[in-house]
């Protein structure tokens, strides 16, 4: 049984992606006998490119995706280089996981409420500084260049890249290397760039590619913050999905293939950016330039990481304020009255969505956890550490744009009569939950001192005892954390829930994004807050249960 | 279960361990009951590899031939938990989520039944190492010497037929080291257990007062340090 777990995981990851890509590739070239397409043609692409403003959409996806990735990667590297080993660094370590658990859409809402013309900062500065007595009529959210969307993506991707960096740092001998560079007289940032980044970046590459793939093809952040005339490519593909004209399915498929091409092109351009950065670094090295006065760079790194984090926290507070706000006239910093009226009005309608999100999240992360634990236990017992192939399978669903394969996958499900079933939705969620659960648990599982199991065996205890009495209790915290990570990922999934759920399984995330169109800040405040807080519930349980189980055991307390 | 007197003890028969086809070490030795065979050598000489082979944990990267004969029975192909060879490491490796008694009960064979009988035996064992009343203590609150004694008792309660010791005293300070050495070696002799001791400390070898095998460094021809 255990031996089947790794194969089952790879199948669950690759199956939907491969089937989904197949499911759009054929219709994209006109082949879809159910809808009368029985010969290959490029007609769908021709009709796709006839859509108004399509070129602008493509450029927007490409530009905002690359910009968001470049800013997030530079911010993380600048921050880690400038503050590695300092108290700021340790402080940030604590904030990473909660920030990561905030769903993309919730972070986008938080940012929107902050930067909106009627947002808190604008109110605090008005009218004494700005002279505004009414919210200015300027497009900050949904701006045509996509700046707000880039900011939203950056704010969400920084915690992810930071966590990946934290995981990779111990294997790079970062402390020794930074100390060596410092002893040679190099400033922190440049010393880090020369000494650590070349080794570190090799391990960060797949996560960075995943960020780029997401940034060039996201839907939920784009819907909340992105431009609308025209919208980025992924959003327009989703709009095609809503078109009642079934012939548009061919165009939709062509769009999915185009999205694959756009993300692929972005990856190629990114490879060029990587090469250029490596060349600059290589050219700097022989000059012996020490950059020893790098306070400005260090400050910039800290600011680039702290500002988005602070924006999400402040914005969430702003959402909370809006959700209980009575009348709130423009330049007033606080609402005139505080009321629970909106909560009372919205929550009954939201309870079904909350129940769905909870059910899907718990089932998907429990199933993922079971498979991942089985695979890791198999690794311990039978000793087959996964090669590169296993890792690539883990990252594949994160590297292929969701819009590119979800519609094809859903189409095949619909043919099989599975569309909109809970099991189908569960399968779609597993594709995205499994990688994160695996990435979260495999490190702690593998780094448990193998000598414990040897001592147990020398006492005459078999592998079953080692699993039940050694690994399960000693790894209780990482196991529950992995569950919480899976739950947070599932709760935050927008497009898979929308497409595969076929509208029958609305969750807090799909509801929040749908309600955003209505533009009522108070209602958005309630739904976005519920959406942001739900993943916290998982992390609270993950921290509280082991803390209670091991309350009398000092050796298992978290250090510091 | 035990075979004739001449078969008692631990025998390493024509043990040859290779890494990537290259011979790492070759050992032939017999350890009678109550005797301690000391294996010494610089790091990278493969002394821990020999211990892993005897206890059944050899990394698949190595290939080994030869036999481990314990009390006349060839245990080379047995799973580690069926060999009856107790292990002690430099770290006590007490399970942090269990109490001190919980750790000892892990060692006590399931043959001894009844919760109260098992707990009484654990309490007696604790009293025997001067830790009466520590049954419910958190292992993390014990001193280094106390932890080492609990680890030793956990191993002995499992009624091993032989002991394999991997630098068991290196983690202790000089005064404790002598005491712990006396305790472990005393138990080995009292219980007439054959023991394999891997160490780099000549004082350990002298106190063991048994045969010594010196493994040469094999790293000269580019072998990876182990």
UniProtKB/TrEMBL annotation, chain A:
Report the transmembrane regions from the record: 54-81, 102-125, 145-169, 181-201, 246-270, 304-325, 353-376, 388-409, 421-441, 479-503, 523-549
Q: Which Gene3D superfamilies match?
A: MetI-like (1.10.3720.10)
State the SUPFAM superfamilies in the record. Answer: MetI-like (SSF161098)
Residues of the ABC transmembrane type-1 domain: 54-269, 354-542
| Annotated localization | Cell membrane
Keywords of this entry: Cell membrane, Membrane, Transmembrane, Transmembrane helix, Transport
GO terms classed as biological process: transmembrane transport
**Location (main, coarse):** membrane
Membrane-protein topology: Multi-pass membrane protein
Q: Output the InterPro entries linked to this UniProt entry.
A: MetI-like (IPR000515), MetI-like_sf (IPR035906)
- A GO CC annotation given for this chain: plasma membrane
Please give the superkingdom of this protein's source: Bacteria
- Which CDD domains has this protein been placed in? TM_PBP2
Q: Would you tell me the protein name for this molecule? A: ABC transporter permease subunit
Automatic annotation (TrEMBL), chain B:
Ranges of residues in domain ABC transporter: 9-226
| Domain of life, source organism | Bacteria
Provide this UniProt record's keywords sorted from A to Z. ATP-binding, Nucleotide-binding, Transport
Q: Does the keyword Lipid biosynthesis apply?
A: no
Q: Which PROSITE patterns match?
A: ABC_TRANSPORTER_2
The answer to whether UniProt assigns keyword Transport to this entry is yes
- What name does this protein carry? ATP-binding cassette domain-containing protein
User: From which source organism is this entry?
Assistant: Propylenella binzhouense
């Amino acid at each position: 049984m255990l031996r089947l777990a790794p194969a089952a995981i790879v199948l669950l990851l690759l199956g939907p992606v491969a089937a989904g890509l197949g499911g759009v590739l054929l219709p994209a070239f006109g082949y879809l006998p159910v809808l009368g397409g029985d010969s290959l043609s490029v007609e769908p692409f021709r009709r796709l490119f006839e859509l108004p403003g399509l070129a602008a959409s493509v450029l927007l996806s490409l530009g905002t995706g690359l910009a968001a990735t470049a800013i997030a990667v530079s911010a993380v590297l600048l921050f880690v280089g400038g503050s590695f080993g300092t108290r700021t660094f340790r402080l940030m370590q604590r904030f990473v996981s909660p920030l990561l658990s905030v769903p993309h859409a919730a972070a986008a809402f938080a940012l929107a409420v902050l930067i909106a013309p009627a947002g808190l900062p604008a109110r605090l500065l008005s009218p004494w500084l700005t002279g505004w007595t009414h919210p200015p009529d300027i497009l900050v959210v949904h701006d045509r260049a996509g700046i707000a969307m880039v900011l939203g993506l950056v704010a969400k991707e920084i915690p992810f890249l930071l966590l990946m960096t934290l995981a990779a740092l111990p294997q790079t001998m970062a402390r020794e290397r930074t100390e060596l560079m410092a002893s040679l007289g190099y400033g922190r940032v440049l010393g880090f760039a020369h000494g650590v980044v070349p080794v570190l970046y090799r391990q960060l590459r797949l996560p960075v590619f995943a960020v780029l793939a997401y940034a060039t093809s996201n839907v939920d952040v784009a819907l909340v913050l992105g431009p609308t005339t025209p919208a980025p490519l992924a959003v327009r593909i989703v709009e095609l999905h809503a078109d009642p004209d079934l012939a548009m399915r061919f165009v939709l498929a062509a769009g999915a293939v185009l999205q694959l091409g756009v993300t692929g092109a972005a990856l190629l351009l990114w490879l060029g950016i990587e090469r250029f950065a490596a060349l600059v670094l290589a050219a700097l090295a022989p000059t012996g330039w020490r950059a020893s006065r790098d306070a400005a760079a260090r400050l910039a790194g800290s600011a680039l990481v702290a500002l988005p984090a602070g924006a999400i926290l402040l914005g969430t507070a702003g959402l909370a304020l809006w959700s209980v706000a009575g009348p709130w006239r423009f330049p007033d910093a606080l609402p005139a009255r505080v009321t629970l009226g909106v909560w009372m009005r919205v929550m009954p309608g939201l309870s079904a969505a909350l129940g769905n999100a909870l059910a899907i999240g718990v089932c998907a992360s429990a199933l993922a956890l079971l498979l991942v634990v089985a695979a890791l236990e198999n690794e311990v017992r039978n000793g087959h550490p996964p090669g590169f192939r296993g890792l690539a399978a883990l990252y594949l669903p994160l590297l292929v744009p969701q819009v590119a394969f979800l519609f094809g996958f859903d189409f095949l499900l619909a043919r099989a009569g599975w569309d909109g079933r809970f099991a189908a939705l569960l399968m779609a969620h597993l594709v995205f939950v499994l990688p994160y659960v695996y990435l979260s648990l495999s490190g702690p599982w593998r780094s448990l001192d193998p000598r414990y199991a040897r001592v147990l065996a020398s006492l005459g205890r078999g592998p079953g005892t080692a699993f039940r009495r050694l690994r399960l209790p000693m790894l209780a915290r990482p196991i529950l954390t992995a569950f919480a990570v899976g739950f947070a990922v599932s709760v935050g999934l927008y497009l898979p829930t929308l497409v595969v759920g076929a509208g029958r399984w609305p969750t807090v995330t799909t509801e929040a994004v749908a309600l955003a169109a209505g533009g009522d800040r108070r209602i958005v405040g309630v739904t976005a807050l519920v959406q942001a807080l739900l993943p916290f519930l998982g992390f609270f349980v993950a921290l509280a249960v082991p803390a209670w189980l091991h309350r009398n055991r000092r050796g298992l307390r978290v250090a510091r | 279960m035990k075979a004739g007197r001449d078969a008692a003890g631990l025998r390493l028969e024509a043990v040859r361990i290779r890494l990537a086809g290259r011979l790492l070490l070759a050992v032939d030795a017999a350890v009678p009951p109550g005797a301690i065979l000391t294996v010494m050598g610089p790091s990278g000489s493969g002394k821990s590899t020999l211990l892993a082979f005897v206890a059944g944990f050899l990394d698949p990267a190595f290939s080994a031939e030869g036999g481990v004969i314990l009390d006349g029975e060839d245990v080379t192909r047995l799973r580690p938990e069926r060999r009856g060879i107790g292990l002690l490491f430099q770290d006590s490796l007490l399970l942090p989520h269990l109490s001190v008694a919980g750790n000892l009960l892990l060692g006590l064979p399931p043959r001894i039944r009844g919760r109260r009988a098992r707990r009484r035996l654990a309490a007696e064992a604790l009293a025997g190492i001067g830790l009466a009343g520590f049954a419910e203590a958190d292992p993390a609150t014990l001193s280094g010497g106390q932890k080492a004694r609990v680890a030793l008792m956990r191993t002995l309660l499992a009624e091993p037929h032989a002991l394999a010791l991997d630098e068991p005293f290196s983690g202790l300070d000089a005064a404790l080291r002598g005491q712990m050495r006396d305790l472990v070696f005393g138990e080995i002799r009292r219980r007439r257990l054959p023991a394999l001791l891997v160490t780099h400390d000549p004082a350990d070898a002298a106190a063991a007062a048994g045969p010594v095998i010196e493994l040469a460094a094999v790293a000269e021809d580019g072998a990876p340090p182990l």
